[in-house]
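Comment thread on ticket #2218

A.B. wrote:
> Attaching the input chain for the structure job we discussed in standup.
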Amino acid sequence: MAKQAGFSADDAAAYVDRIAVFPGLMLSYGFGELEITRIRQQAEVAFGPKFELQAFHDRVLANGGITLPMLREVIRRWVAAQPPQ
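C.D. wrote:
> Ran it. Output below, let me know if you need it in another format.
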């Protein structure tokens, strides 16, 4: 971790300890990243060249911590509310 990710030795040790104590944490982070990437790709296709990453990020973060199905619905409604291209 220290060599590949540039963590300090203490940060690398804490990271490894966290994974050992909460093994599902890394899985949930990875799953969330994949799902948000999938949702973003769908929005990019829907908006085409008018897609704005900052607007997408604002919409993703607007409701705070919500479930992935709720986020998917928020983004679906946001895309549907935009005027046609």
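A.B. wrote:
> Thanks. Noting for the ticket: The chain has one domain: 2-80.
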